[in-house]
Amino acid sequence: MIVQALAADRGKRLDSLLRERLPEYSRARLQTWIREGLVTVGGQTVRASHTVRGTESIQVNPAELPPLRAVAEDIPLTVLYEDEAVIAIDKPAGMVVHAGAGVHSGTLVNALLHRFNSLSSTGGDLRPGIVHRLDRFTSGVLLVARTDAAHRDLAAQFAARQVRKTYLSLVEGRLEGKGRITSPITRDPRNRARMTARLEHGRPSLTSWEALENFDGFTFLTIDLGTGRTHQIRAHMASIHHPVAGDRLYGARPSAWNRYFLHAHRLVFRSPASGGEVTVVSPLAPELVAWKSTLS
C-alpha cells in the first residue's frame, strides 16, 4: 500500500505518521515492519525516527507478525501470599509485568508460568493471570489470579474500588500534613509516553497523600489511591510540582539509583477463595531503603 505524505506532515516521525494513517495497526507492529525493511521512502529503507519532508510516497508492505504468547522462564519470584484463587507477588523494580513492544523475555508473566502450573486465561495468552499492573520501575505488591473465576472476582473488586492500595514514595520538595489531588488524568498531547493532570479534561482521579518524614529537598509520603489510572501517582505529584524522586519522565532530577522512588506497599482485598479480607504488605525495596538512608 502507498501512503502519501502531505505538507502538513512535514517534520513528523515516520512511525508517527504511519500510526496516524494506518490506525488499524499498532505502533509496535509498524516499527517492526520498518526495521525489517518492509517500509520504504522513495524506494529507500529508513529508520522509524526518519523525519518526513511532506512530499514522499511511502510504500508499506504489510506482513503478519506471529502471535505473542508468554513462555515459561526460570526467574526468581518472591511470593508474599497465595491461596487457591490468588497469588501476591513482590515485584522488583525493572521487571516488566508482561511482554509487549520490544520486550518478550524476563517478564513477571514468564516467571509465573514457570513457577505455577496454571493461571487465569482471562487476560489471554500474553497476560495470563494479570488483573492489574505496576509500572516497570515501580516495585511492590501485585495480585495474580489463578483461575478465571478469581480473575473476574478480582477485576470486579478493582472496578468497584474495593481494593485498597497504599504506596510509599519520596517526592521532591517539602510537603506537610495531608492532602488530596482530584485533577482528571489524560494522555499528555505533547508526549504520548506520559500522562498529565494539568489539563481540564480527562478521567476522574483521586490520590490522597500524607507526609511521613521531611528531608533536605525531599518528602517521604504514604499515598492511597482512590482510582487506578495509568501513572496516576506520578502524574498527580508532578501536577502539584512535587514529582516522584528520580522520575525524569515527569520532570524530576536524575538520581543515581536507576529507578524512581515509588513502591506498592500494601494491598487489601477480598479473597475469591475464602471471601475473607486479606492484607498483603511488601517491605520497602532494599535499594529504596538505601536511597532513603542517604538523605538528611
What's the quick description here?
The chain is an alpha+beta fold and 296 residues long. It has helices at residues 14-21, 27-35, 108-115, 148-159, 232-239, 286-293; strands at residues 2-4, 39-41, 44-45, 57-60, 79-82, 86-91, 139-145, 164-172, 178-181, 186-187, 195-196, 207-215, 218-225, 262-270, 277-281. β2 (39-41) and β3 (44-45) form a beta hairpin.
Can you give a write-up of this model?
Strand 12 (207-215) and strand 13 form a beta hairpin. Helix 1 packs across helix 2 (27-35). The chain has helices spanning 14-21, 27-35, 108-115, 148-159, 232-239, 286-293; strands at residues 2-4, 39-41, 44-45, 57-60, 79-82, 86-91, 139-145, 164-172, 178-181, 186-187, 195-196, 207-215, 218-225, 262-270, 277-281. The model has no long low-confidence stretch (mean pLDDT 93). The protein has 296 residues and is α+β, with helices and mostly antiparallel strands. The chain is built from 6 helices and 15 strands. 18% of the residues lie in helices and 26% in strands. It folds into 2 domains: 2-60, Roll (Structural Genomics Hypothetical 15.5 Kd Protein In mrcA-pckA Intergenic Region, Chain A), CATH 3.10.290.10; 79-293, Pseudouridine synthase (2-Layer Sandwich). The strands form 3 sheets. Strands 5, 6, 7, 8, 9, 12, 13, 14 and 15 form a 9-stranded mixed sheet that branches. It has a 4-stranded antiparallel sheet with strand order 1-4-2-3. The chain has a two-stranded antiparallel sheet with strand order 10-11. It is globular.
